[in-house]
Amino acid sequence: MALSDSVTTCLSPPVHYVICKLGFEKKDTYDINNILSENGEVCWQAVTEHVCYLESDQSVDYIKSIRSLGPVCESVNLHFKSLTKEQFVIQYALWFRWTNYTELFLEVFDVLQYTQTTEVALGLMKLTSCLERALGDVYLLIGKDCPFLLRDLLASEQLAIVFGQAVMNVLRVFIGSPYGLNLRNVLWHGFASPQEIPVKYCAMLLFLTAGLGQLLQTYLLQTKCILVHRPYVIFVSLEELDVFPGKYLTISKYLNHETLSIAEEIVKLSSFVLKTMLPFWMAALTAFKQSRYADCVILLLPQLEVGLRLLFTTTNQCPNRLLTAEVKFLSKVSYDLMLAKHLDNEVVNQLPAVLEEPAMASEFLWDFLNHQQGPRIRDRLSHGEINLEAFPREVANQIVAFAITLLCRFSDEDMFAFKEHMVIKPLMNCASCYRSRFHPISRLKKQVLECMKSIHLWPELPTVPEEHIQTIKGLEGNAEASTLILMISEIISQLQQYMPQNCCSSDDPINSVLTERLLIELCDTCICTLYSPRPVLEILVVLRKISTQCHQVSEQVIASTELRYKQWMNKTLRSRQRHNYLRMLNSIKFLSPVLRFILVLITLELVNVHLVCRKNPFDYQQYLKFLKSVLQYTENLVTYTSPEKNKWDETMELTNKALIKIRKISDRKLMLMQLAT
């Protein structure tokens, strides 16, 4: 890991030339009045004439364009430096309103005045993310589904209609195209150190954003359209993100001034940190101390990527990938590749083995950055989907704590005292036993337990006396319900050997087995979520749908029972409604064990199918067909138990047919479970 000291840049020679030198080759002095009118409007024609095109296909010649625009950018930078804050606000603030975040652009102006390289890089990352979000809002004036990638957004016909193709080509010189300066990507992926981003490019993007606001105002006046801003993404269930420092401990207690001071010392010594990137790390910790949590995370995420890329390239013996790759490789050196099971040549990725505890980094990173139901922090920050002013400390806590564990994990032995420090050790211990929270397997476990809690509310629901139910013709013997319960008992008896023995009783299989305790035991089974095989992921989709349908049935039963009881007591039910209500009360007696049985069944499927897929490949399509038939049953159950249908007799018939089918193939299922053991 001595490489962290020797690396002076993460920009490959061609990319370094384009960003750091190309725009400085022309020494001409450019008059700002050429591109700025007396009334403060951007003269776009004068700007766009600096974009050059290839003779062969009339596509943008990025090399010549960057060289030509260099003096223009310097002129804009000097112009902004000549303005006071008050002058800048008067002349430009109005034109940033279309971004829905005027304050950010005023903040970037402040940064330009002091030319602190780290702050300029941070300002540029925030500016590009906000600009992308605003351009997406403009796209939706005409288009429907906004492109996810900035390069596709800038190349879209919709933005060309609003701003003009020539204007969009200017933007693509600076951001969005891997052939241009590509400032957004080299910063957000951690390739550029603070001193490698020329201040004048940040100034130019600030200037261009104001000019876009002027063009947009003209378009809106002509078309009578109204620009609507999409709402920001809000992190919900923040308690699910509470990983560090562990159960019963408060993270804020540990990320105090003492811990952050220790972290600053570790950063200086850790082999996980490239020395050229040290200013970013220090600025991130400073931002956290100042309660600037969004800034802290924006600065840290690219640096975590740099550190992991250093490990990745070292362990996989591909040191060239530590540098910004050329166009054809640029997208392949980020988290996606580093967290993959195989490299693009099908060679096994060695990074998880080097991490020793894959959960420490891989699972955490997948959870917080990649899994669709996770917070996807990097995506949402870099694409401008989050309100930076309201960024939650809870999220920053976890990223900072995780970063500290990586700094300690990849450090020399002489840092033993730091690792054993009373505020650092709990973080290390927690990281070493981390389990995924947002993988589909983890989400299914959560769904199943939440559904069982809902079903457990049924006995507490208000109900009419039993004698009222017994007066309904056709319910006296309740033989059909007894048959259903018997079938469930038979199937449970077959499956019991594959369940935790401390949760089972042969005397009363229904009430002793189909319990929340059993589900908790099953869900506590440690299942490897990293690199789940494709069959597992496909099966998980169906299992999660089954669980969702079961939960909806439970919620419908609760809502209908409470409503009908209230109407019964108020004597507002008609004769037929009273009869149907009593049938519902009778039906839910058997429906509760049926739903509990399905939850236990799909949890067993989760545990055993995962093991089978990893150990013995099998024809999962036929197995998937069975699960889809169970899904079909639960979907029909949702329909029949809905307030609109209230088909309780049909519910019993439907359940009988479904249980017969499950019992018929139970032998086949036992074979599957035997394969897993």
TrEMBL record:
It holds the Pfam family DUF4209. InterPro entries: DUF4209, ERMARD. The lineage of its organism: Eukaryota, Metazoa, Chordata, Craniata, Vertebrata. Residues 131-211 form the DUF4209 domain. This is DUF4209 domain-containing protein. It comes from Aptenodytes patagonicus (King penguin).
